[in-house]
Amino acid sequence: MVAKTVNQRAWFLVLPVLFIVALNAIIPLMTVVNYSIQDTFSPGVFFFEGTKWYQEVLSSSRFHSALGRQFLFTAIILAIEIPLGVAVALAMPRTGPWVSVCLVLMALPLLIPWNVVGAMWNIFALPDIGLLGYGLNWLGFDYNYTQQPVAAWFTVVLMDVWHWTSLVVLLAYAGLSSIPDAYYQAAKIDGAGRFAVFRYIQLPKMKRVLIIALLLRFMDSFMIYTEPFVLTGGGPGNSTTFLSIDLVKAAIGEFNLGIAAAMSILYFLMTLLVCWVFYTLMMRGEDET
Amino acid sequence: MAKIKLNQLAHSYYPNPGSDEDYALKSMDYDWDDGGAYALLGPSGCGKTTLLNIISGLLQPSKGRIEFDDVDVTQRTPEERNIAQVFQFPVIYDTMTVAQNLAFPLHNRGVEAQEVERRVADMLETLELSAKADRRAQGLTADEKQKISLGRGLVRYDVNAILFDEPLTVIDPQMKWQLRTKLKELHQRFKHTMIYVTHDQTEALTFADKVVVMFEGEVVQIGTPEELFERPSHTFVGYFIGSPGMNILPCAIDGAAAIVDGHRIPLGFHYNPPAKAKLELGVRPEFVRFAKNTEYGVPVSIERVDDVGRHRIAKVHLGQHSINVLLAEGEPVPSYNIAVVCDPIRSGVYANDHRIEGQALKEASAW
Fold first, then answer.
1. Shared domain check, B131 and B12
2. Which helix H or strand E contains B301, and what residues bound it?
3. What is the largest CA-CA distance in chain A?
4. Dihedral through CA B291, CA B294, CA B299, CA B301, nearest 10?
5. Cα(B352)–Cα(B363) distance, rounded to whole angstroms?
């Protein structure tokens, strides 16, 4: 028997991919890593600083509060958008001409550029000329998001819910549409009530798409920048300064490249870690399928 | 348990059905006995599942009424009708264990916990799933899942009827046999009215006391397996039941004989067929044989002989018509002067696809 010589040259075909990945991911990331462990005063002049920037970031109260705001924001967003998205998907018609109408309506917010969303809500919520702001004040609420932290949070959360709940709706709707009729018929025969149908058929069948929805909404809301930047600019004060806004302030506003780079790396690792924990927890017991 | 009565029942999936063509189910009047095992047999798209869903209450008929024990239940839900139904593809509740799956329909009906436990244990035993009672139902094989679906229907002892919609489609052949035997057993034990939809004649004939043959939205015959075999009342029944199906030959009728392609075939009865009807002679391959040399038969030519296991089937030509002839074991295939004879008593005459009855002859001709 003659041993076949394995032709390894095929590996060269992977080179273009490696090249592209290097350009768009590895090299930029390594640049950030470089900045995060060095100090620089002028181009080409670098001093090795080790973990100094990391220690500084991790012990700064400014970072702590930005991180706290970030987690609070993401938690509120997920707690509202996931249940609301599922509820809307359940309420949408399953057949007939209204299906496409609903789907188009749902897709609309997703098609609007993020800074436009910020600008829209900025004007919409202005207490003197915006419909929302004026309306709330007319109803007797003392509402001014440019001055009140609570009002600013309310507006940012409302804007995000308006912008992104549709994504959860569309994903949940896709999950619901994939359930065969026989399940609903069997549930009727078994005498299951509306809630039992949701709990034992719809929810388990939507599990996978909901995991995706949860991960996407987590990552997006955790990295949110454009909309609050346009809407509140992180204010009033620092009340809506989320991590990415803080990061940009440090990098571009204050030109603290070392601090900003260390923050970026920590930010990236945190997102990765939380996603991994989510995913592992949610997929536990799914291996049997 | 209940007697089921279909009263002028018809169904169309169109909102405003016009002609007969629009109806998936054409008007029908039938009584189904309490405790009977019925099979609804027919090709795909003949309305079997529609009829089943109407009986269970998943579908509202466009016309007519359905009665359980003389009570009109047309407007009632499946829950109110107290019906169990098993579907073609297994439906299980993924997040529950096997035992919880079986207990689900009982819990929903507020059955006492102790009673639930007892019945579930009994059903697990019956379905041979006891070892897997506490496993999550999600990871089971297709036939185990289908057993659970069956079990969820059977665990309710007091149902009015159990309906099966081709329940063995996804099951392995070996397992099919076992499950079917199990169903028969359960039927004898609980005496539920059972209605079993299938397009497999073996399944229908082995399961049911009465087979309901459907064709293009109509019930063409209800009968015991023997009746369907011996006296199919519609050419479709003859063709669909039996393997191979009945030979159906266009013919003319002359009193007690059929004329096929210019040849006289003697019949056991004297017929007066309606004028201008499409006339056909139907005779099963089992009742056609090659003529012995002393007999007079209809001359044919042999196209081929197939060995199908237990017996052989000769395909012969009579003019442009082909006829299947079942050969007895060890019977030689004739090689010259080939002719066939049909059993006159078991040959039927069909006018526009429906069997017509003849008058008995004074002296029946021997076959």
1. yes
2. strand B301-307
3. 91
4. 60
5. 28
Q: Which of B255, B281, B254 is nearest to B362 (CA)?
A: B255
What SS3 string covers A62-100? HHHHHHHHHHHHHHHHHHHHHHHHHHHHHHCCCCCCHHH
pTM of the model: 0.74
CATH code where residue B269 lies: 2.40.50.140
- Nearest-CB residue to A289 (from B88, B138, B153): B138
The two structure tokens encoding residue B273: 């067929």
Q: Are residues B171 and B313 in the same domain?
A: no
Q: Does A2 touch chain B (CB under 8 A)?
A: no
> Which residues in chain B have Cβ-Cβ distances shorter than 8 Å to A189?
56, 58, 78-79, 83-85, 105, 153
Domain membership flag for residue B134: yes
Tell me how far apart the alpha carbons of residues A195 and A183 are, in angstroms, rounded to a whole number: 14
CA-based max dimension of chain B: 77
Higher pLDDT, A168 or B295: A168
CA distance B239 to B228: 11
Residue B242 to residue B56: CA distance in whole angstroms? 30
Torsion of CA B269, B272, B273, B274, to 10 degrees: -160
Alpha-carbon gap, residue A207 to A213, rounded angstroms: 10
- List domains and CATH numbers for chain A: 25-59+256-289 (no CATH), 70-240 (1.10.3720.10)
* pLDDT tens column, B173-206: 887 888 888 888 888 888 888 888 888 888 888 8
Cβ contact B187:B179 at 8 Å: no
ipTM, two decimals, is 0.73
Matching residue, tokens 């025969």: A189
Token pair 């009906």: residue: B109
Cβ proximity of A35 and A257 under 8 Å = yes
Q: Which SS3 state, helix, strand or coil, does residue B117 take? A: helix
Tokens of B102: 């079986």
Give the range of the structural domain holding residue B268, as residue numbers without chain letter. 246-360
Answer whether B306's CB lies under 8 Å from B315's CB.
yes
Question: Would you state the structure tokens that stand for residue A248, as one six-digit string?
Answer: 């940009």
What pLDDT, in 10s, does the model give residues B3-49? 888 887 888 888 777 777 778 888 778 888 888 888 888 888 888 88
Q: Which of B13, B53, B58 to mutate to test the interface with A (most CBs of A within 10 A)?
A: B58
Phi first, then psi: give them for residue A207, nearest 5 degrees: -50, -50
Q: Give how far B90 is from chain A: nearest CA, Å.
A: 9
Q: Is the dihedral of CA A173, A179, A181, A183 positive or negative?
A: negative
Check whether residue B74 and residue B110 sit in a common domain.
Answer: yes
Task: Evaluate whether residue B156 is within a structural domain.
Answer: yes
Helices marked H in chain A: 15-21, 27-36, 52-59, 61-91, 98-111, 114-124, 131-138, 149-177, 181-189, 194-197, 203-222, 226-231, 243-248, 257-283
